């Protein structure tokens, strides 16, 4: 059986005090879960988060990183800096990075390569915009996002890839893909990977759904056979909501 994962992307929310409070609440209330639970606070609070969670099963991810080893990249963070503070997972390709910071498939392929060279795990986000779905291009958009950023990888490198299908029209909008839409796309993604690689890679990779997952819709979405968990934005900022979503899996 594939690993099931619930990851919380806190985005640019929670200062240090608020981060400590939410982590304490989560540590106390999270149910024993066979799923992996990951939180991704903002960069400045990552080191303290790792320290606070050192005896916890909750894992820590960064929301982004640069592809270069080090150097003159003002404001950026390297893989080594993350590893040095104990962060071994990174979210790459989030639609907000693509839309507001111009991150394209070529840049993301470089980031993916660096993270994998450093033996980090990647939560790789991708998904179509509303217009692309309305015009019926959602499958081809998703296919090309995967091909351009990931299909140069060797089979063994896929062990460190977690996929997060996030239709852009469902992120932070309160509008969720229906469980059937999620399953349809996740099955398509798995088939696309099978065609490019083989059954082993396709069946082994966890594919998370992201886009307005809430306590009231999580169980139905997670019940679909090709949905292996969720990447959660807004609802990961409240202990009760995030806990309920973990319980749903
Ligand atoms: C996200 O930003 O990855 C996300 C899924 O956000 P939300 O859950 O708020 O839609």
Task: Summarize this entry quickly.
This protein is of the alpha/beta class.
What integer value in Å does the Rg equal? 17 Å
| Distinct small molecules | phosphoenolpyruvate
Count of individual helical segments = 11
The overall strand count is: 8
Description:
About 40% of the residues lie in helices and about 15% in strands. The chain is an alpha/beta fold. An eight-stranded parallel beta barrel has the order 1-2-3-4-5-6-7-8, surrounded by five helices. The radius of gyration is 17 Å and the shape is globular. Phosphoenolpyruvate (PEP) binds next to strand 8.
How would the blueprint of this fold be written?
Elements: E1 5-9, H1 16-29, E2 36-40, H2 46-52, E3 59-62, H3 79-84, E4 89-92, H4 95-101, H5 105-117, E5 121-126, H6 130-134, H7 138-150, E6 161-165, H8 179-196, H9 199-204, E7 206-210, H10 218-222, E8 229-232, H11 239-248
Parallel strand pairs: 1-2, 1-8, 2-3, 3-4, 4-5, 5-6, 6-7, 7-8
Helix pairs in contact: 1-11, 5-7
Residues 9, 166, 171-172, 210-213, 231-235 line the site of phosphoenolpyruvate.
């Amino acid at each position: 059986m594939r690993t099931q994962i619930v990851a919380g992307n806190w985005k640019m929310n929670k200062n240090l005090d608020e981060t400590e409070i939410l982590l304490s609440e989560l540590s106390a209330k999270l149910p024993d879960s066979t799923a992996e639970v990951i939180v991704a606070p903002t960069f400045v609070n990552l080191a303290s988060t790792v320290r606070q969670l050192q005896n916890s099963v909750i894992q820590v991810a960064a929301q982004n990183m640069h592809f270069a080893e080090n150097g003159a990249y003002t404001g950026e963070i390297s893989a080594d800096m993350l590893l040095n503070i104990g962060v071994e997972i990174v979210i790459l390709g989030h639609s907000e990075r693509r839309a507001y910071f111009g991150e394209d498939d070529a840049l993301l392929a470089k980031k993916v390569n660096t993270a994998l060279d450093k033996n980090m795990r990647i939560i790789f986000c991708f998904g179509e915009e509303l217009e692309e779905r309305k015009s019926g291009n959602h499958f081809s958009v998703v296919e090309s996002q995967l091909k351009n950023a990931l299909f140069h990888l060797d089979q063994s490198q896929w062990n460190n890839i977690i996929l997060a299908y996030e239709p852009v029209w469902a992120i932070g909008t309160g509008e969720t893909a229906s469980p059937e839409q999620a399953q349809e796309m996740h099955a398509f993604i798995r088939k696309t990977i099978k065609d490019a690689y083989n059954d082993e890679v396709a069946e082994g990779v966890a594919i998370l759904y992201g886009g307005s997952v809430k306590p009231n819709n999580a169980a139905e979405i997670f019940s679909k056979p090709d949905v292996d968990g969720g990447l959660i934005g807004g609802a990961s900022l409240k202990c009760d909501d995030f806990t309920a979503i973990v319980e749903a899996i």
